[in-house]
């Protein structure tokens, strides 16, 4: 018989049996398809040798607005901290939740290992895993407690323990006057849903209860983040909004947006005022100020911030309105105090073109509602609305009070029980609830933002299960995939049955999507039923150019790609990794990376309809190693026979073939760049083909190998 070419359809198909998918691929790991042909995926290496604390759940990359955008920042949100990565270092910008002044708070234990120190604070009681920074302490028990420490235990409502880096020389109590700065409380590193009606998922808290500032330990730090110009807005799911200012330096802690807004900054200046019909123009030696905004500078407010204006006369603060009459000249103090900034949110993003800060799920603006104190500032304590969308005034992230003179506002979605998440696209913002998807578009005053229901009775797996690539948005639902390119459509998946039988539904909130645009791919990572724990361990990929699916194993907790950059992922060793770099795994030791095992196996094929056994005696490879970095790259190839679909591979040696080969196992034939053919002895009614690589530096792409196969009986 003539040679039989082994050509298979691109992508994996697990919707039927391994025999019914004849002519396709069935199983693989760490491969992709390019122009319909399978190849090994690229390797990965460390972004930096340093490590962060906790499990990363969010990555955001942006550049500042300086000349040439010279500063590239990476925001890293973990379950314990938030960092800015810049210039090879991780800078801890986790907000300070509360600062206490303590007197002789430390009690050392001697001898102990680990070196336990008990801290007494009657004002604030952190949770296990929280962080606290001490400063100003004097020596106690032969050691000085200074710097950042993690809470190890909480034996009482007024005490907690930390671990010292050095052993105490005696048991003692002291430390003098100490400043204890408590960071925003840590959260769980995995999904932990409550039981019963009203139990919020992953530590969000009781249904409908807003952030109160106390008792919030063990919240999930499912961070959301977006850049507001050169700066950064970010928030954990269920918590308040934080703001980090590029102008203040990479080591500056993030601050509560509410705290910044309520900071009073005064400008005293000899000014000339003129009253007009539509505005009041303030002309001073510093700059012109035009109602309803003024530009102010000072501690706590970024330079150049536009804010609503008021002036202070004596002990009274008078808002500037269109009818305000001022003296023609004089000295005035101007101040601004924002109000009703959301203190509990599901997600925060910014609208880059229109310059709004937008939150999804929030406590509403309710004039006269009860107030609460957050970080020393008076803020709104109105009920939390899980279907509410709120936005700040345009170009003013501090103003959230809807007025005729600004564009801040809010809107309650109707379809669903809670907002799952949102993503900005080129012309709109897409908003998912647990049962619908909306389009949010800027329409200008007075309504500012318009909302359109795109589809009801839909679903989404998690807050990070969506991704937009080439202006098409893809997401994973609870039982199928979807895409949106102007209309919502179900995305057919040849691995749907396999995936939804493999995914750990109890860890569904850990699902996240990422793009790999250089290879026309959308990736979803998930926790499998076989993971044996709560860590993400597998992925599924949709190749939108070749319109095919494939999957593999990989432990990652977050992923980000923007433009032509390498994809950045986070592993469970607290490192960021560049993907598609080299051919190997450089996550632990970039100087001596380890090999990546990659393989793909076909579905079964036969002669005709399998009426006769086939005997394969020769294999002609077709594979290239173009981007390999080792001296002699190679792969192994197997032709795996079996008697019928229900039998194991390699057991088709019946009747006995007189050969030195042992057919209880399937031989693997080594193929390198100059291998012209290999001789095999494989006999079966149906067979599968497999290619695999296990060597360091190896890269490969499979072409169209051929086999010499002939009929060999009908048993």
Report on this structure.
- By secondary structure, the protein is mostly beta strands.
- The chain has five domains: 4-43 and 596-711, Jelly Rolls (Sandwich), CATH 2.60.120; 54-95 and 213-257 and 341-458, no CATH class; 102-183, Beta Barrel (Elongation Factor Tu (Ef-tu), domain 3); 265-335, no CATH class; 465-475 and 488-581, no CATH class.
- Helix content is 2%, strand content 44%.
- It is built from two helices and 61 strands.
- The strands form 16 sheets. A six-stranded antiparallel β-sheet has the order 25-24-23-30-28-29, with no helix packed on it. A five-stranded antiparallel β-sheet has the order 2-53-59-56-57, with no helix packed on it. Strands 49-50-51-5-52 form a five-stranded mixed β-sheet, with no helix packed on it.
- The longest helix has 7 residues, at 496-502.
- It is globular, with a radius of gyration of 31 Å.
- The relative contact order is 0.13.
- Mean pLDDT is 83; it is low at 194-218, 262-337 and 652-664.
């Amino acid at each position: 018989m003539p040679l039989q070419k082994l050509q298979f359809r691109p992508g994996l198909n697990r919707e039927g049996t391994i025999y019914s998918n004849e002519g396709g691929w069935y199983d693989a790991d760490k491969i992709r398809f390019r122009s319909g042909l399978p190849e090994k995926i690229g390797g990965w290496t460390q972004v930096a040798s340093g490590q962060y604390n906790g499990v990363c759940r969010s990555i955001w990359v942006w550049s500042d607005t300086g000349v040439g955008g010279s500063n590239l920042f990476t925001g890293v949100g973990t379950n314990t901290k938030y960092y800015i990565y810049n210039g090879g270092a991780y800078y801890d910008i986790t907000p300070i939740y509360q600062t206490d002044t303590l007197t002789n708070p430390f009690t050392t234990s001697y001898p102990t290992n680990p070196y336990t120190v008990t801290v007494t604070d009657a004002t604030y009681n952190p949770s296990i895993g929280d962080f606290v920074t001490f400063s100003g302490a004097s020596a106690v028990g032969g050691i000085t407690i200074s710097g950042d420490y993690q809470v190890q235990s909480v034996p009482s409502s007024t005490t907690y323990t930390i671990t010292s880096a050095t052993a105490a020389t005696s048991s003692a109590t002291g430390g003098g006057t100490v400043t204890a700065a408590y960071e925003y409380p840590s959260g769980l590193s995995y999904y932990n849903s409550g039981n019963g009606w009203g139990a919020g998922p992953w530590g969000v808290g009781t249904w409908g209860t807003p952030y109160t500032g106390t008792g919030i330990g063990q919240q999930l730090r499912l961070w959301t983040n977006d850049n507001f110009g050169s700066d950064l807005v970010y928030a954990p799911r269920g918590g308040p909004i934080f703001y980090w200012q590029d102008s203040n330096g990479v080591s500056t802690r993030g601050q509560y947006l509410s705290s910044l807004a309520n900071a009073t900054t005064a400008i005293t200046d000899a000014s000339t005022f003129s009253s007009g019909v539509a505005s009041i123009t303030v002309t001073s030696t510093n700059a012109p100020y035009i109602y309803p905004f003024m530009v102010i500078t000072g501690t706590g407010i970024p330079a150049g911030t536009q804010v609503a204006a008021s002036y202070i006369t004596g002990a009274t603060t008078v808002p500037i309105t269109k009818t305000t009459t001022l003296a023609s000249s004089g000295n005035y103090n101007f101040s601004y105090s924002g109000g009703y900034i959301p203190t509990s949110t599901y997600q925060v993003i910014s609208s880059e073109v229109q310059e709004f800060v937008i939150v999804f799920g929030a406590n509403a603006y309710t004039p006269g509602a009860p107030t609460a104190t957050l970080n020393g500032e008076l803020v709104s304590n109105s009920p939390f609305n899980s279907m509410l969308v709120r936005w700040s005034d345009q170009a003013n992230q501090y103003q959230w009070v809807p007025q005729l003179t600004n564009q801040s506002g809010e809107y309650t979605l109707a379809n669903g029980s809670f907002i799952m998440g949102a993503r900005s696209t080129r012309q709109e913002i897409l908003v998912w609830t647990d049962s619908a998807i909306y389009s949010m578009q800027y329409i200008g005053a007075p309504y500012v933002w318009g909302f359109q229901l795109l589809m009801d009775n839909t679903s989404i797996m998690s807050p990070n299960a969506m991704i937009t690539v080439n202006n098409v948005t893809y997401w994973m639902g609870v039982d199928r995939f979807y895409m949106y390119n102007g209309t919502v459509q179900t995305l057919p998946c040849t691995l749907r049955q396999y995936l939804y039988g493999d995914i750990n539904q109890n860890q569904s909130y850990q699902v996240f999507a990422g793009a790999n645009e250089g290879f026309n791919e959308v990736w979803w990572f998930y926790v499998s039923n076989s993971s044996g724990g709560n860590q993400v361990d597998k992925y599924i990929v949709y190749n939108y150019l070749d319109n095919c699916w494939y999957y593999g194993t990989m432990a990652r907790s977050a992923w980000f790609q923007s433009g032509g950059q390498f994809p950045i992922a986070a592993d469970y060793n607290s490192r960021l990794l560049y993907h598609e770099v080299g051919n190997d795994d450089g996550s632990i030791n970039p100087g001596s990376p380890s090999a990546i095992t990659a393989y793909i196996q076909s579905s079964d094929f036969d002669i005709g309809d399998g009426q006769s056994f086939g005997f394969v005696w020769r294999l002609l490879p077709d594979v290239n190693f173009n981007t390999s970095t080792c001296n002699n790259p190679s792969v192994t190839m197997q032709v795996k026979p079996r008697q019928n679909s229900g039998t194991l591979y390699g057991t088709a040696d019946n009747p006995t073939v007189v050969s030195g080969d042992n057919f209880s196992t399937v031989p693997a034939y080594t193929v390198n760049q100059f291998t012209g053919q290999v001789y095999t002895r494989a006999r079966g009614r149906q067979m599968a083909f497999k290619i695999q690589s296990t060597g360091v530096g190896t890269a490969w792409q499979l072409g169209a190998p051929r086999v010499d196969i002939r009929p060999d009986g009908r048993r």
